[in-house]
Amino acid sequence: MANVSGRGHKVLVLVPAYNEGPAIRTTVERLLAAGHRVVVVDDGSCDETGAVRDLPIAYLRHAINLGQGAALQTGMTYALRSGADMVVHFDADGQHDCSQIERLLLPILEGRADVVFGSRFLRKEDAAQVPLSKRVMLRAGILVSWFMTGVLLTDTHNGFRALSRRALENVQLQENGFAHATEILQRVREARLKYVEVPITITYSTYSKHKGQKLSGSFSILFDLIMARLSR
Fold it and tell me: What domains appear along the chain, each with residue ranges and CATH number?
């Protein structure tokens, strides 16, 4: 299959999925239609998520649900072993636009970055798409992550990002849950990786809003981060 975004480089799009049966097939088919190599990591789903196995993808499965961080690490380990030059993290619920993958890869291809973070807050029109309650929660997360890591982004908990092979070799996630987004920043700082943010647009469907992170989950992330910091 041709890889339209990597300009001759091997790029894998990692799609972590947990009970994403209603949306994942459409998400993966769009990626395939755009010419991307797709790796789905099924994080112990108990619905029809696994039905995407019949598509021309790499399908990896956890026997039990471990968390999105663990699913991403499984995908990144697979990418390293398969000789990938770059990976893209891409949500399964359909809120990301595969046409923007090129935008994430470009700074890596040009040698300006090892990690590229998508941001909903670099352009007013993108920020306006984010529901107000979620916007407040995300802003709080930015400050917490800055305090924990010393890395200040405009959109810390955006799952749409790209990593070079050098970044893959240095970003080894221990946080199994959503706190992995902050842990990535820690690894970036420790390894002195170059990073940039690029503007991306998120589409919030009724389904993605329902599946999205709840306020209680944010408190759980904060607790995990504090405990991890205290244990160091």
Answer: 11-231 (3.90.550.10)
